[in-house]
Specification:
The protein has 20 helices and no strands. Among the domains are: 126 residues, no CATH class; 80 residues, Serine Threonine Protein Phosphatase 5, Tetratricopeptide repeat. It has 356 residues and is mainly α. The chain is elongated.
């Protein structure tokens, strides 16, 4: 990251412009200025992680998370880049210790460079300096959620939504946190409000569908899943979830179709291949079952359900050694105690014993 002459002047101008926009909390301008600097670097072949980090920050605050992941890869993966960004962030915080937006930027640097616990102090400081700012509460909630502190995450998300009812990323995370706690009746209003404000949000429709299904409201859930797929027809997990609704309704003809749709949307979606294998196995379509289970393993070599299915096929074919080899893999990979118990029960029925 060496500059000389006119390039040093240009770099100084870029930093000055970005700093001013950050101080104003003008994240659209931050993104625009960072983009210009990135363009210059790409044209000249020079390297500097700072504009990529600045754009990453703007994208995160604006809720453009997919784009933020791409800029993160160019700013906070290499040790040298992390060191360069850290030096800039420390300069900013030293020069502007009472500016909430700078503490927010520092928190985002820390949370994305393996220092999540330290980032919490920055987010808290930002919220003290600017009590009206919702984003520090949102990012603090994310840290709590990753740490398994769901109640603290909910508290932070609720504060973000209280400060800005249109903060849909915070509202979505609040709904998900409620749902993970089993408080589906609290999650549903969050998803409905997102849909009211942004009707084309496929994820909100899918999450609402999932919550309704948990309440046993299968028809309304199916309506929401179909709307999610109309908005995003290539969402394999949603096709997979629709299969679950049809299975609960006893529509076996549509279950297999939904699994097919899932693997059409994403050929690497291992759970759908595995589920298709079980449908084929139940129908006595042994070669097709084996093919589906093998596709599941190719897509995810750590899929225990697929190895269990392969073991079942080998058992049907009276290839005991191969069957038990795959049962062994399934038992080693399976983390769900109920599913592991199911495999064990089947093994005992086959007349074997197993040391787990």
């Amino acid at each position: 990251m060496l500059y000389s002459g006119s390039r040093m002047i240009t770099m100084t101008a870029h930093l000055s412009g970005l700093t001013e926009a950050m101080l104003q909390g003008d994240w659209s301008t931050v993104a625009e200025l960072a983009g210009r600097w990135m363009g210059e670097l790409e044209r000249t072949g020079a390297h500097d992680p700072r504009p990529y980090f600045a754009k990453n920050v703007a994208q995160l605050i604006q809720g453009h998370f997919g784009e933020a992941w791409q800029t993160h890869a160019k700013s906070l993966q290499e040790d040298a880049d992390i060191a360069a960004v850290r030096a800039w962030v420390e300069q900013l915080t030293d020069a502007h210790p009472k500016e909430a937006t700078i503490h927010l930027v520092a928190g985002l640097f820390l949370s994305q460079s393996g220092q999540s616990e330290q980032s919490m102090d920055r987010y808290r400081q930002a919220s003290v300096l600017a009590p009206q700012l919702p984003s520090p509460h949102y990012f603090l909630g994310q840290i709590h959620e990753r740490a398994g502190q769901t109640e603290l995450a909910i508290k932070a998300y609720r504060e973000a939504v209280k400060l800005d009812p249109a903060y849909l990323s915070a509202r979505m995370n609040l709904g998900v946190a409620y749902q993970e706690q089993g408080r589906v009746e609290m999650a549903i209003p969050q998803y409905r409000e997102i849909i009211r404000q942004r009707p084309d949000d496929a994820m909100a429709h899918a999450n609402l569908a999932c919550a309704l299904a948990e309440q046993g409201k299968l028809e309304p859930a199916l309506v929401e899943y179909k709307e999610a797929l109309r908005l995003n027809p290539h969402d394999a997990p949603t096709h997979f979830a629709v299969a679950g609704i049809y299975e609960a309704k006893g529509r076996k003809d549509l279950v297999l179709k939904s699994y097919h749709d899932a693997v059409e949307a994403d050929p690497g979606f291992s759970p759908a291949h595995s589920a298709m294998g079980w449908v084929f196995l139940d129908q006595g379509r042994i070669p097709e079952a084996m093919e589906a289970f093998n596709k599941a393993v190719r897509a995810n070599p750590d899929n225990p359900d697929a190895y269990y299915g392969i073991g079942r096929v080998y058992a049907i074919r009276r290839k005991k050694e191969a069957a038990w080899e795959n049962y062994s893999k399934a038992l080693k990979l399976e983390k769900d105690p109920d599913k592991k118990s199911k495999i064990m029960t089947h093994l005992f029925k086959e007349g074997g014993t197993w040391d787990v």
